[in-house]
Amino acid sequence: DGDAVATLRTPIVAVLGHVDHGKTTLLDRIRGSTVTEGEAGAITQHIGATAVPLETVSELAGSLVDPTDFDLPGLLFIDTPGHHSFSTLRSRGGALADIAVLVVDVNDGFQPQTIEAIDILQRTETPFVVAANKIDTVPGWNPQDDAPIQQSYDAQSDRARETLDERLYELIGELSEHDFSADMYWRVQNFANNVGVVPTSAETGEGVPDVLTVLMGLSQRYLKDAMAIDAEGPGAGTVLEVKEQKGFGTAIDVVLYDGTVRADDTVVVGATGDPIVTDVRALLQPRPLAEIRTEKRFEQVDAVSAAAGLKIAAPDLDDAMAGAPVRVVRDRSREEVVQEVQEE
Ligand code: GTP
Ligand code: MG
């Protein structure tokens, strides 16, 4: 009937938590990559973005997920640094998120940046699940590579299972001290009022099927209305980084959370001075499952729709600012869009 047809966009999932608790390793397990190994001092220093298609989610989740139950296209994961000096990046990651995974090392429990992450999630009212990570380090653990957690539990000695349960209950206690009523995820009926705790090992993959299942379930259940966008509308996003792209000059890494950006669009980008108004020279998209921070083989494309990580190459981007908004002008006046960017 001529009305714009709403499309369901990919939910944006922020991965937050204290330094070294296993955020990047968890994403490596999902991507089948080794981004962690390439990090200087094994510390994440930038926000990352990785698109995980529904196909991959359902492959990894195995019997736990029936892809025909879902009409969301997959998940866009945002990796954030846990080191204390990167609090701006954590807030930025949190602000982009539709939902989140809070990664907590089961041995280490709540640490300063765990609490900082919880505060961000509370402030931005972002629903989240807790990945109680590194369960493979529980004394006497009998690893079950890539198994759903129930199967993995069944393969443990009573002793190992009891030790893990004790640690999980400590975590649940710490969450309740921060005003979150939490329980093991399989006991949570209403995820709107309760935080689900999922035992995981990013090292062995145990519990990873469960994390993906809970994230898809949460998204499908609570985010569907929010994910309905006019995919043809003018794109809106946030700058992650400003850097040289070989053959294209200065480019910006962007997380696009609404609409579409096309290769012939004019965009307005927040900058250290006045907003930059510039014409897109090229749109470069990472391959599915590639981390935008480390991707080497970007594909040059005509258009990108939300949600996605992409590089935008254009003239005059040198003063573009990480964390600033990016807006496509399209049918609107430049002045209007410049003002919108200034006000954000
Ligand atoms: P930052 O990004 O710097 O905050 O750290 P991070 O949370 O991304 O941690 P990262 O994934 O870099 O992991 C830190 C260390 O813990 C690495 O040596 C990983 O191999 C290890 N690690 C992560 N997850 C697990 C796990 O489930 N089990 C075990 N045994 N080791 C893990
Ligand atoms: Mg990391």
UniProtKB/TrEMBL annotation:
GO MF: GTP binding; GTPase activity; translation initiation factor activity
Regions annotated as coiled coil: none
Domain of life: Archaea
Annotated ranges, domain Tr-type G: 8-223
UniProt KW Protein biosynthesis keyword: yes
Function: Function in general translation initiation by promoting the binding of the formylmethionine-tRNA to ribosomes. Seems to function along with eIF-2.
Annotated signal sequence range: none
Protein name, as recorded: Probable translation initiation factor IF-2
Organism of provenance: Halococcus thailandensis JCM 13552
Amino acids binding GTP: 17-24, 79-83, 133-136
Parent sequence residues shown: 14 to 357 of 608
Record's keyword terms, sorted: GTP-binding, Initiation factor, Nucleotide-binding, Protein biosynthesis
Similarity comment text for this entry: Belongs to the TRAFAC class translation factor GTPase superfamily. Classic translation factor GTPase family. IF-2 subfamily.
GO cellular component, one term: cytoplasm
The UniProt record lists the keyword Transferase: no
